[in-house]
Amino acid sequence: MATSTTRLMTFAEFQEIPDPPGGYYELHHGELIQVAFPDLPHGEIQHRLLLLLSAAAADSGVVRIEMPYRPEPEHEAWRADVVYVSKTRWNPQGRCFFGAPDLVIEVLSPSNRAEDLLEQKDLCLENGSREFWVVNGKRRHVEVFTPGGRTATYKSGQEIPLMFGGSLTVDAIFPQS
């Protein structure tokens, strides 16, 4: 019986592929993954987080949305909804940030699969992220994961302590309904 093997795509090969209309590609374990651009409600939450975290972080680091990063040196290229990278680690080179950002935030959308989020969370926390957040707009809460396996869920009326100091009110993240 013959078996076939699939060759993993390298990061160099990945960089040569143009993004598809209406979205972009990511590279997960050497496999090309097509991702659609976020919808308006998703983008609104990203924008709010960008403004809130940028103000809170001040000059301690940078906050970006839709930032490509490489949590491992080969066969990986992901994009996060929102990130924070400390000033000491911020060293952009080329098209992607090398390593996992200090804080990675994913805003849930209909296209998210639980399995993919779990994989991304583990990959980030194992490769330099200090926190990984999952923001749920429907339930209006935020789950915060840390490398030590701790998880905390923050809901309306609560504040999320920020790794660089200060806190963020959960209600400020979500548009008023």
| Domain tally | 1
Report the sheet with the most strands, covering strand number, pairing sense and barrel closure.
7 strands, mixed
How far apart are the termini? 59 Å
Low confidence ranges: none
Number of strand elements:
11
Assigned CATH superfamily: tt1808, chain A
The CATH top-level class label: Alpha Beta
Structure in words:
The protein has 177 residues and is an alpha+beta fold. It has one domain (39-173): tt1808, chain A. Helices cover 23% and strands 33% of the residues. It is built from four helices and eleven strands. The strands form three sheets. It has a seven-stranded mixed sheet, with helices on both faces. The longest helix has 18 residues, at 40-57. It is globular and about 50 Å long.
Short précis:
This protein is 23% helix and 33% strand. It is α+β, with helices and mostly antiparallel strands. The chain starts with 10 loop residues before the first helix and ends with a helix.
